[in-house]
Amino acid sequence: MNNKEKIDEIPEGFTAVRTLEDLNNIRNNLNGKYWLSNNLDFTGSEYQDGKGWTPIGDWNSIFTGIFYGNGHTISNLFINRPSTDYQGLFGYIDVSSEIKNLGVVGVNVTGEYNVGGLVGANDGSVSNSYSTGSVSGNNNVGCLAGCNDGNVSKSYASGSVSGNENVGGLVGFNDWTVTTSK
After folding, report:
1. Which sequence spans correspond to the domains of the chain?
2. Side-by-side strand order, sheet with 119-122
3. CA 85, CA 87: separation in Å to the nearest integer?
């Protein structure tokens, strides 16, 4: 990831994400434009207990917006939903969506189908992003994205991934484009 892409000023039309509460509130406007203003850490938060974080977007409420990480990281994401699909920081992102310049580090994500550290199912664009940690599920399981039906570019993942079908280090199941990634 290239830190030269970090910009201090929030672009016009974007909403700043400064806290975990701001991040959680994205689910109230799934087609917005968001700008991560600083690093976030789930450690010690209410999202570290029980089932953990509820992903932003799912099959019924798909994220259709834009999320720019601005070179920042989100650390220690915890999800424990072994019988639930579309698990990750983002559960499901649409073809019009874009996630860019974001790192999710130290993830511990467990789901059923379409499970990833950054996104469970990607139909949009993920670029210049990465995920590290542990991801497990049944089918379509990847450290960055569980299922990719969109575009992944200039991204990487490292950590442990386990599942029964379509399991991969970067993406579990790929049906579209992955370029300059590892």
Report:
1. 3-179
2. 90-93, 119-122, 145-148, 171-174
3. 6
Q: How far is CA 58 from the centre of its chain?
A: 12
Distance between CA atoms of residues 116 and 145, nearest Å: 4
Report d(CA 122, CA 90) in Å as an integer. 9
**pLDDT one-digit tens code per residue, 113-162:** 999 999 999 999 999 999 999 999 999 999 999 999 999 999 999 999 99
Is the torsion defined by CA of 38, 27, 161, 166 positive or negative?
Answer: negative
Altogether, the residues listed in the chain come to a count of 182
Token pair for residue 176?
């579209």
CB 157 within 8 A of CB 178: no
Sign of the Cα torsion 145, 131, 54, 7 reads: negative
CB atoms within 10 A of CB 64: 18
CB 82 within 8 Å of CB 117: no
